[in-house]
Fold these 2 entries.
Entry 1:
Amino acid sequence: MLWLLILFVFIAVLVLARIYFSLRKIRAASMRDDWDAQQISHLRALGSDPFQAHDVDFFFGLPSETACRAVRQQLELEGFAVDVQPVPEAVDQIFSLHARRSMRLSVPDMQALSRRFGELAHAHEGRYDGWAAGVVAQRRSD
């Protein structure tokens, strides 16, 4: 009878752990999606025209030259300009990969890119550090 109780407790702990980590993963994705929306909202508040193309910079931290080559190859196939710099003072992600592409900023598109880039970086044991873009003034029609 005692072994059934131990088995039940063990299974309950496994189920609770799975629920916890699933909720944590969902929360992290939600925070990333909110960040993309906030960035675009901030640019619009500064007067940026969402209908114009922006030069968008994307940032990755990667652990090796092999990982950099793989990510670089993937991004260049998609039309990104890519450069890689070593980060000698870094402990784990010793390379910084910067990708740039001109594109319109829409919340769903940027959220999808952030999710995909997070997965791409994770697949190569790196991290995706987000994106940045400058203000693009609205065109005046004279």
Entry 2:
Amino acid sequence: MTHVVCEPCNNCKYTDCVAVCPVECFHEDEFILYIDPDECIDCGLCIPECPVEAIFADSDVPEKWEHYTELNAEKAPDLPVITEQKDPLPTAPPK
């Protein structure tokens, strides 16, 4: 099992999840984060840290966002790893 970043992260990019991740599975795109399923160890620490509830276990991804499972797997390996917390995008909803 792995975890998946879904739609609520788009135009948001709170990185609280990255700060608690014990491995380097988060990757950063311009407007969203992705999780590399080959690096994720399924610890679940990131899920409660996301203030917009954008991260799900792959078995719990809502049907409307199921395509994000494949999108994370495709995109993450080609993007830079992010390991430290950064400021969210200006378009992020308030915590």
